[in-house]
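so the lab meeting is tmrw and i was supposed to have these ready like two days ago... anyway. pasting both below. for each one the top line is the aa sequence and the line under it is the structure tokens. i havent really looked at them closely yet so no promises
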Amino acid sequence: MPDSASFWTQPVSLAGRHVRLEPLAMEHAAGLRAAVADGELWRRWYTAVPQPDGVEAYIRTALDGQAAGTDLPFAVFDADGALVGSTRYCRIEQANHRLEIGYTWYAERVQRTALNTEAKRLLLAHAFEDLGAIAVEFRTAWFNHRSRAAIARLGARQDGVLRNATRNPGGGYRDTVVFSIIDSEWPVVRCNLDQVLANGGRRP
């Protein structure tokens, strides 16, 4: 396993049947503006989705995190090659072999489809099998019930709730629910995700 300080943030492309993840770049700005407009995702107060005119700043922040060694952002494409959202590894702690999968958002038309399941399958496999992670975290807002249910369906377990963890863009504070999957759980989680994908993304 390479021990370079930048090993976990080396750009990588991940592809499956339903989704393709490519290293995020400024050239993706126009496609992300269109994706975020599908459902006006920024209007959901409990999420951290950029407004259309804030997409360039959003990408710059993600790339700054990559340069700092804490993030590895991706542009998400559907099976037809359309840019439909973004996700990233964040809170990377290479020395502790931990990271988080977060900042995930998709155009409304692809939400709750096999695309997200396969994207998480690809990201988890790369984290555990290629990078050697011992734990992968997921975090979401207390009031984002859909996100909490989706994370639990992946096979992640709830670790706890961070009260007043972050400040919301519109004011007030967000309670954050923390989930994780650890390396010893990954084989069973992988088997479950493969079964779900074999069923077309539908739960048995």
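ok protien two:
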Amino acid sequence: MNKTENKVTEKIFKSDEEWKEILTPEQYRILRQKGTERPGTGLYDQFFVKGRYYCAGCGLELFGSDSKFDAGCGWPSFSIPANKSSIGENSDRSFGMVRTEVVCSRCDGHLGHVFNDGPPPTGLRYCINSESLIFKSEDDVFKENEAVK
């Protein structure tokens, strides 16, 4: 088990005005207003570079590239979060459906939804909006970690 898996994530609270200052209009629409991208339009849908994905709102690590797969649904798909504590879930009954919304556990930003039709071993498909993510390559992550030492 990852040592950070059960770590409690400290919440970030900002006003709508503060979010609008740090997010693009599309990021704000998705992260703060629970919007979604049109399928197949997101930067990370067909993107398979080794690295890590972070919340575009607060920078919390959400997913690793090793859990990313091509689900053919038009959105980036992941089978497991980087840490269970990074992701929150809410019931979503919008549009006449019952789904499980996925949010960043630190800033409560809307990321997408999780479905039970993913690959083994989890059987889960975290269907995530590209606009809610920031990607950092393995090289970038390594360089940042070295700079901190």
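from a quick look at the 2nd one: The longest helix spans residues 138-148. The two ends are 25 Å apart (CA to CA). will dig more after coffe
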